[in-house]
Amino acid sequence: QTCPAHTEVFQRMAKQECYFINGTEKVRFVERLIYNRMEDVRFDSDVGRFVGFTPAGEKWAQDLNNNPQWMEYKRGQADTYCRHNYVGVTPFSVERRVHSSPSQSIP
């Protein structure tokens, strides 16, 4: 008797995002570490440290936050990764604005 073949797929992904406000006046860098569609840990330059969202992510965040050289590197990513690439990505980026609808008065 044979067993059916089992195939398992695991997905690991890192996603880096840059947010620009008023050109490069205010820049925010966010890096998300995702495993099997679940965000485990995130670095946000506005927060200045890693934050875990799962038990494993909390442990990884603690380990990463306790590495001074790595944290110095990550905190610099808004400049070295985002600002440095601003001119190259600007033609392809999407500018998002909040549009308010005009108010209507009732006679």
UniProtKB/TrEMBL annotation:
Its main location: membrane. It is found in: Membrane. Keywords: Adaptive immunity, Disulfide bond, Glycoprotein, Immunity, Membrane, MHC II, Transmembrane, Transmembrane helix. It comes from the Eukaryota. The keyword Transmembrane applies. GO terms for cellular component: MHC class II protein complex. The keyword Cytoplasm does not apply. Residues 16-90 form the MHC class II beta chain N-terminal domain. It is a single-pass type I membrane protein. Pfam families: MHC_II_beta. SUPFAM superfamilies: MHC antigen-recognition domain. Transmembrane segments: none annotated. Gene3D superfamilies: Class II Histocompatibility Antigen, M Beta Chain, Chain B, domain 1. InterPro entries: MHC/Immunoglobulin (IPR050160), MHC_I/II-like_Ag-recog (IPR011162), MHC_II_a/b_N (IPR014745), MHC_II_b_N (IPR000353). GO terms for biological process: adaptive immune response; antigen processing and presentation of peptide or polysaccharide antigen via MHC class II. This is HB2D protein. It comes from Catharus fuscescens.
